[in-house]
Amino acid sequence: MILALGFSGAASAKSLADSKAVNSGLISVGIALEISEKCPDISARTIRGYSFLNSLKKQARSEGFSDAEIDAYVDDKAQKARLIKKARAYMASKGANGSTESYCKVGRAEIAAGTQAGNLMRAR
């Protein structure tokens, strides 16, 4: 009983915002979605995306987070804004400057490199 209480206390003290695996995965999803929205030559792989999101949820559970904690984190507007900012900074560092072609160029490069974001997109 004491061991169980100690474990649950440790999990609740840690924030899901500290999970590098979950957050980098969510950033990759954000990159893929934004590129697929801004580049008409690239589309999101929807089924692969849902599967990947499920794997992130499983990862969060394995780190000790409940479904309620995971849902609250994903729905949190401040966390969502923080992750979008990181995704956009990454895309800007790769050359996305607001033009359609720049998003297409970044998307094609991600797909060619086989990054996680690239695996969530396909060229049409």
Task: Please give the structural blueprint.
Elements: H1 2-13, H2 20-38, E1 42-44, H3 46-62, H4 67-75, H5 77-93, H6 100-113, H7 116-119, E2 121-123
Antiparallel strand pairs: 1-2
Structure description:
This protein has 124 residues and is mainly α. It has seven helices and two strands; from the N terminus they run ααβαααααβ. It has a two-stranded antiparallel ribbon. Helix 2 packs across helix 5 (77-93) and helix 2 (20-38) crosses helix 6. The longest helix is centred in the N-terminal third of the chain and has 19 residues, at 20-38. The relative contact order is 0.19.
List key phrases describing it.
124 residues, mainly alpha, two-stranded antiparallel ribbon, 7 helices, globular, disordered N terminus
Quick take:
The chain is mainly alpha-helical. The protein has helices at residues 2-13, 20-38, 46-62, 67-75, 77-93, 100-113, 116-119; strands at residues 42-44, 121-123.
- Helix count, DSSP H or I runs of 4 or more residues: 7
Oligomer: single chain
Tell me, briefly, the overall form: globular
Strand order of the largest sheet: 1-2
SS-derived structural category: mainly alpha
Overall mean pLDDT: 90
Largest sheet: 2 strands, antiparallel
Helix share bin: over 70%
